[in-house]
Amino acid sequence: MGALTTSRTGPADAAGGRARPKARRERPAILRLARRPSAAIGALVLLAIVLLAIAAPFATPHDPMQLAVRNRLQAPSLVHWMGTDELGRDVFTRLLYAGRTSLAVGFAVVILAALAGVTLGLLAGFFRRLDAPISRVVDAMMAFPDILLAIALVAALGPSAANVVIALAIVYAPRIARVVRASTLVIRELPYVEAARALGVPTPVILVRHVLRNVVSPLLVQATFVFANAILAEAGLSFLGVGVSPQVPTWGTMISVGRQFLDAAPWIMWAPGAAIVLTVLSLQLVGDGLRDFLDPRLAKDV
């Protein structure tokens, strides 16, 4: 009878015997990010485009390089879902294979630009003596329009997929370098970095363990925008005839050829144009959602 009874709602606090509220279980990151409809839609569209590009050999029975002049400029039908081009090739098949090339170029550009940009940004932001010279070089490169600098680099290196990747990586590395430098300037003054220095931790370890880990969030967001810009730039270079070899199907090459038959066969140009718009828009939506999700000031609204 003298036993103490406990409340079902939880232990009482010392002040007034009221039950303490239970700690709210935090939702998984993917569910919190999915609460933003625009980011979720962008991620689904991007995933569908990537899967279609990867499954191109299995998604269509046609050969992207097979010529059938008798079937040239046919309108969309059950046999050719998006019609045929000026040489009788299936537009849908070439669209999928072109997506593989454009996405591969964009992804390779992001990797190379991130490697170069992170290295320059860390060096400029952490070492005061290197800040001025690196920043001046970065500012000078960003003073040129992206497409003009890319055309000049590809013209100097020669038209090929590898040279296009190198040229676009050089063009977009300064953008990543500025973002990493800005974050590094703040992080290097934080107490835990000063403590690591005082304890004699080697500088490379500090850069990787304490600085680089904390610039991943803005780096991921910037990478999505670089990916989108790289796809647009590659399409522009291919459209102008200075990008990937014309024998390799790309969205830019398809648009360049399709403009000559815009009146007779507009589907040749519309299909790759819609693919570029959807891909770039989905990347922008994903990047915008990542920015809101990873920013502590905006994460509470996600």
Account of the 3D structure:
The protein is mainly α. The protein has a single domain, classed as MetI-like fold (Orthogonal Bundle), CATH 1.10.3720. The protein contains 13 helices and no strands. The radius of gyration is 26 Å and the shape is elongated. The N terminus and C terminus are likely disordered.
How large is the share of residues in beta strands? Answer: under 5%
**How far apart are the first and last residues' alpha carbons, in Å?**
51 Å
Number of strands: 0
What is the averaged pLDDT score? Answer: 82
CATH class: Mainly Alpha
Please give the share of residues in helix. 55-70%
What about the largest sheet? none
Structural class: mainly alpha
In CATH, the topology is named MetI-like fold
List the helices and strands in order: HHHHHHHHHHHHH
Radius of gyration: 26 Å
* Low-pLDDT ranges: 1-17, 298-302
CATH architecture title: Orthogonal Bundle
Number of domains: 1
Q: CATH superfamily assignment? A: MetI-like
Shape: elongated
Counted by DSSP, the helix tally is: 13
